[in-house]
Amino acid sequence: MNEYRMLSTSGILGYGYAEESLKIGMSWEPHLIGCDGGSTDPGPYYLGAGKSFVSRLSAKRDLRLMLQAAVAAKIPCIIGTAGGAGGAPHLQDTAALVREIAREEGLSFRMALIHSEQSKPSLEERVRLGQTRPLAKMNSLDAETINRAERIVGMMGPEPFNKALDGGAQVILAGRSSDPAQWAGPAIRAGIPPAVAWYAGKMLECGAEPSVPKEPDNIFIRAREDHLVCEPPNPIRRSTPLAVANFALHENSSPIHHTEPGGLLDTSACLFEAISDRAVKVSGMTWTPAEQYTVKLEGVERAGYRAITVCGTRDPVLIGQIDSYLETHREKVRVKAASFGVPPEDYTMVVRTYGKDGVMAAWEPVKAITSHELGFVIEVVGRTQDIANAVLAMARTSMLHADFPGRLCKEGNMAFPFSPSDIELGPMFRFSIFHVVAPRDPYEMFPIEYETV
Amino acid sequence: MPRIRDIAQICKSKNAGPFMVTIDVLFEDPALYRKVKEAGVLSAALFSRLYGVAEEDVLFTPYDTASAFKATLPRLVPAGDIGDTDVYGAQQHAPLLDVEIPL
């Protein structure tokens, strides 16, 4: 029986995992170890700013143990969507981390960097050739949108990973990649059918999520001809049919149709069977190759500069009239900002009211406020950082001192927990490109660079 | 009448990409799942009403093999854009918890 064994260490590189899990997982003799390095989930900032959403210290800890294990067992170690968003700075930061660990630990291996950041001229050319189309409710991609973007990445499929393995790489750091691709590729290369290989990738992309208790940790998959077996190495966890089924729904718009670069994974006929009290067998998945190979593009543009402040009120008179108070506050800020030369079109102010609708905004069905205190996050996004800071400072002062009917708390309406009270958040980004492109082949957008570490 | 919070084992929300939020309800017992499905309360129309989005914008899928229901709808604001309150989309499930199911 052909069996390909894969060990995923965590949901995201840097989220952490138990060292003991890795020891047990390695004793099950995986053919491949790896971890997903990123996601769009933390929002557009990280792709735009070229920064990671996990700390360097925790990523280094996770990576060090993985590299030591991979070198000792002579198996590949693959990191997908390196550095959180897979852009050039994210990939380079992760590569620097690997070189640093190798130096400190005396490890040596052949490493491949698979690039995924796309140049603006190359994308303009693809638009001209009619190779792109929009996803969700985006407009068609045009040169102007491309040129406004701060950074654009393509999401690679499994093929570049396999090319890097063919090229002799033991450690592979990839830019933006479809989460399951780093697993599906090597499994397909080892002769596992695509349906099982892709499903295995889906089970591995978030570490121990298909287990209970669900926390960042290792997961181990045995991929075979017509099924896979999912089992967490850590003895405190168990994979159960409910946990595996729950995870099958994760972060996808449909539970049964999963669109991937080269085709469609259909899970409608999947069967989840407990084969022990801690391992689940999944079978019945199917794979339909796409007529056209497609690569998703993700891009962000700068939407302004942001500053925020946090405060709260315990005054029942104010809480009883909070909606009209916030309207008055908005008007006061508008007048005062205009007086120092900032017109309303130069900024946007949003006040989130926790205790009322701070979590769900317009989706909040509960209208009555029953809390004895309310918390506020005041946000200003300005055309420049100076504008954001100035309007926010005025918004903070007005929030503290504005008068209201029946006011008893004449020294101030708000409790501010910090000094300084205003927090400068820097550039603010928004997702601006969410399109697919039909490349000539699965490789041309993802050049591979090799080095001996 | 039992509410979703009384009978489901999982009720959760999360982004499905930056522009959509997806809401899942799972049952451990397939027989109970089938009864809930037959009751017909969980539907695209329900999500349209609870979240104030057009029914044709709700992708509603019962997933028999996992004893689960999934509904995917457009977010109020794209993740991380001005005015967003929930970048991960992880706390948008609550209106579902109190939905009553005639069993």
Automatic annotation (TrEMBL), chain B:
DUF4387 domain boundaries: 4-100
One Pfam family linked to the record: DUF4387
Superkingdom: Bacteria
Protein name, entry field: DUF4387 domain-containing protein
Source species: Teichococcus coralli
Taxonomic placement: Bacteria, Pseudomonadati, Pseudomonadota, Alphaproteobacteria, Acetobacterales
